[in-house]
Amino acid sequence: MHPAAFLGVGALLAILFALQEWVEVHQMSRHVSFMLLLEAWGVQYLLWALICWMLWWLLGSKLQRVNLFWAIVGVLPFSIATSVVEEMIWVMCFPNLPLHMAHMDFWPRVFFQLRAEMVDGLVIFWCAFFLFRAVGYYQRFREKEATAAQLQIELVQAQLHAVRANLNPHFLFNTLNSISSLMRTDVSAADLMLEQFSNLLRMSLERGNVLLIPLRDEMEFVEMYMAMQDRRFAGRVSQDLRVQPELHDALVPAMILQPILENAYSHGLSQIAGAGLLKIEARKEDSRLRLDVLNSGVGINPDRSPQFAGHRLGLTHVQDRLRLHFPGAHTFSIREVSPDKVLVSITLPLRLCESPPEVLTRYGA
Fold it and tell me: Mind spelling out the 3-state secondary structure of 54-94?
């Protein structure tokens, strides 16, 4: 609704009507200067362009809210008065038009023009009126859309914070439980595990409420968590962590792997007496990031693992967070690749963090 838009439309209409009248006049074998016709139509439509822009500038918001009663009682008389004023200004600008008519004084010429152009002026006015109404409806529609989108974003953020708030106590409870059980068998190992646990808490607090973090930071947390569990399992679990170098800056939800690892230790590796395997791999597949966690154990068959169905809170949190972060753009699967091995796979859109890597405090294992 910039003034240039009104003036541009007015100038275009003036050129089209001037050209149309010039062709009609020449077909009747009459000679009229095209520039004169262009001036006449140009003044008329540029006047209407200025009138429409002033209506938008001064009364646009009021015209958008006017009801039917005030449209008839107020806007209709105003449109008639505006058309009369426009014709008066035009007659003053062109006292010798139309050329085929005898000379007339000002008011007779005004009445003559009103009889010929009054309907056209009202049509222009009411087209502008309904245009303003349409613009108002469109603006309110976009505002409602923007408000709804913002509310949706806030809702998703609230859901993510709620899921994370529920995840952290679950993680704390299980980790403290592991330390408590270790205190009965190896006090020094429990003390070291408690120190590592405090480092994990410090890392988690430093991240604050950040929901997406670089994969390198997530893997730092994973390494610390695996080192802590290695103390608990007395080194009988073979750990393998592989990340493609170009994926260190890939964005992933914070603590997205920890519940999977916790599930692997609690319901897989802890159920076997001998050596176990835990393998974590991050690799690129086309334009997606794939995260795999493979662990040995008793599998996920309910007949062999009756406790598994009741301990899926962590995995449910993982799926909820993936759904909220990447709606319709992620996959999550858990399956047995052999009777004694379970594979959890996640794929999500590959997005790289834009800010340069920060130097983070490193915590030894």
Answer: HHHHHHHHHHHHCCHHHHHHHHHHHHHHHHHHHHHHHHHHC
Question: What one-character DSSP code corresponds to residue 308?
Answer: G
CA separation, residue 303 to residues 117, 283, 299, 300, 311 (Å):
90, 33, 10, 9, 15
Residue 123 has a CB neighbour count (10 Å cut-off) of 12
Instruction: Give the total residue count for the chain.
Output: 365
Which pLDDT belongs to residue 98? 65
The burial of 222, by beta-carbon neighbours within 10 Å (0-12 exposed, 13-18 middle, 19 or more buried), is given as buried
Burial label, 60 (beta-carbon count in 10 A; 0-12, 13-18, 19+):
middle
pLDDT of residue 16: 85
Nearest alpha-carbon partner for 266 in 219, 224, 232: 232
Q: Which residues are CB-neighbours of 55 under 8 A, at least 6 positions away?
A: 63, 128, 132
CA distance 252 to 282: 11
Beta-strand relationship, 276-285 and 237-243: parallel
Q: Report residues of the chain scoring pLDDT below 70.
A: 1, 29, 98-102, 151-171, 174, 204-209, 299-314, 355-365
DSSP label at residue 95: T
**Which amino acid, 171?**
F
| List of domains in the chain | 3-148 (no CATH), 185-349 (3.30.565.10)
pLDDT of residue 310: 43
What amino acid occupies position 273? Answer: A
CA distance 281 to 292: 5
On the CB side of 360, CA atoms within 13 Å amount to: 19
- Say whether 292 sits in a helix, a strand or coil: strand
Q: pLDDT tens digits for 271-302?
A: 887 888 999 999 999 889 999 999 988 766 54
**Calpha distance 282→213 (Å, rounded):** 15
Dist. CA 186–CA 190, nearest whole Å: 6
pLDDT score at 363: 36
Q: Is 328 left (phi over 0), alpha (psi -120 to 50) or beta?
A: left
For residue 90, the one-letter residue type is: W
